[in-house]
């Protein structure tokens, strides 16, 4: 898909979302859903880049999200660093962690990369709970309960001011996904696809698989960490329950619904999945069963996701 079409889809999607407060007013339930959609749109897009474009089967995306959230919370609560700076530092810290995780993965094949990155995910919970060594400011099993909200020039963006917080989240989401779009359509994106489709041939042409795989780990970890950090300041508390499989499976559903490797499908998948998940909350224990059934139906009807359907129609029209 061309850059103009991708930008148009993103512009229409975010434009409609930006008008939501004008259409529905300050309804807390709807504003919260939209804010969560905007946050997870970036996380899902990052996972789409690393898995759908670079062809790296990384299962550590939720782990990087949690690392960013906890890092920013610790910076703010224990070191008393201003929230905005803490979020940026958390993004850099998560990017470094992403590179450290990516280094041993460079010598491994797809399934083994998935095992290593998922191992990071599984190890993070006991580490944050203090069962492995010391819980360095993570609050152990209790978590962190007093995370300050984002404050810029004396104006607070928190769950108490949902409309301003919504527009701030919208700005972050647009900025991060715009960076992803530019990267995908740049030389980097071409290199990612070349390594994914024919790594040996790409290396023969001078494309360094080592360099670009580390770059994709760093970039996706950075953006995921920033959104995780903002999530922590928005919610105001963190616990290791975020590392349970529910969130991991929900993120995977976003990719499947949107279409893996079909950006900006991950953005649309995030909006659909998060909204459906919240609306099905009254079903309680049956929510997961219902979501699973809906995913099976969607996969059968649209095996390439929503964007796959869009691309098929576009090809037919042309």
Number of domains: 1
Mean pLDDT: 86
From the helix content, strand content and strand pairing, which structural class follows?
Answer: mainly alpha
Strand order of the largest sheet: 1-2
pLDDT < 50 stretches: none
Tell me about the largest β-sheet.
2 strands, antiparallel
- The ordered string of helix (H) and strand (E) elements is HHHHHHEEHHHHHHHH
Shape: globular
Strand content: under 5%
Radius of gyration: 19 Å
Summed up, what is this model?
This protein has 318 residues and is an all-alpha fold.
For the structure shown, list the relevant keywords:
mainly alpha, 73% helix, 318 residues, globular, single chain, two-stranded antiparallel sheet, 14 helices
Please outline the helices and strands.
Blueprint: H1 3-18, H2 20-24, H3 28-53, H4 61-77, H5 83-105, H6 110-128, E1 150-152, E2 155-157, H7 162-184, H8 187-197, H9 199-204, H10 209-235, H11 245-258, H12 265-279, H13 286-301, H14 305-317
Antiparallel strand pairs: 1-2
Helix pairs in contact: 1-7, 3-7, 3-10, 3-11, 3-12, 4-5, 4-6, 4-10, 5-10, 7-10, 8-10, 11-12, 11-14
Task: Describe what this molecule looks like in 3D.
This protein has one domain. It is mainly alpha-helical and 318 residues long. It has helices spanning 3-18, 20-24, 28-53, 61-77, 83-105, 110-128, 162-184, 187-197, 199-204, 209-235, 245-258, 265-279, 286-301, 305-317, and strands spanning 150-152, 155-157. It has a two-stranded antiparallel sheet with strand order 1-2. The model has no long low-confidence stretch (mean pLDDT 86). Helix content is 73%, strand content 2%. The chain is built from 14 helices and two strands. The two termini are 13 Å apart. The radius of gyration is 19 Å and the shape is globular. The longest helix is centred in the last third of the chain and has 27 residues, at 209-235. Helix 8 crosses helix 10.
């Amino acid at each position: 898909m061309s850059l103009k079409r991708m930008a148009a889809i993103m512009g229409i999607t975010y434009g409609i979302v930006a008008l939501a407060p004008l259409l529905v007013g300050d309804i807390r339930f709807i504003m919260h859903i939209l804010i969560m959609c905007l946050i997870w749109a970036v996380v899902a897009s990052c996972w789409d880049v690393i898995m759908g474009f670079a062809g790296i089967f990384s299962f550590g995306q939720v782990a990087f999200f949690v690392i960013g959230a906890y890092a920013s919370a610790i910076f703010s609560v224990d070191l008393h660093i201003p929230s905005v700076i803490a979020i940026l530092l958390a993004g850099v810290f998560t990017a470094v962690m992403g590179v450290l995780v990516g280094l041993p993965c460079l010598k491994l094949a797809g399934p083994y990369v998935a095992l290593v990155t998922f191992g990071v995910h599984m190890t993070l919970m006991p580490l944050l709970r203090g069962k492995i060594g010391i819980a360095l400011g993570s609050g152990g099993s209790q978590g962190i309960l007093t995370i300050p909200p984002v404050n810029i020039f004396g104006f607070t963006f928190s769950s108490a001011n949902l409309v301003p917080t919504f527009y701030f989240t919208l700005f972050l989401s647009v900025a991060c996904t715009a960076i992803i779009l530019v990267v995908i359509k740049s030389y980097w994106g071409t290199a990612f696809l070349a390594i994914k489709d024919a790594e040996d041939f790409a290396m023969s042409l001078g494309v360094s698989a080592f360099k670009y795989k580390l770059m994709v780990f760093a970039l996706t970890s950075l953006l995921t960490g920033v959104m995780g950090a903002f999530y922590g300041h928005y919610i105001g508390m963190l616990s290791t329950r975020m590392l349970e499989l529910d969130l991991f499976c929900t993120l995977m559903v976003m990719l499947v619904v949107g279409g893996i490797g079909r950006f900006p499908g991950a953005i649309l998948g995030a909006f659909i999945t998060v909204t459906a998940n919240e609306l099905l909350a009254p079903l309680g224990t049956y929510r997961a069963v219902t979501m699973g059934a809906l995913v099976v139906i969607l996969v059968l009807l649209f095996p390439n996701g929503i964007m796959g359907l869009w691309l098929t129609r576009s090809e037919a029209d042309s």
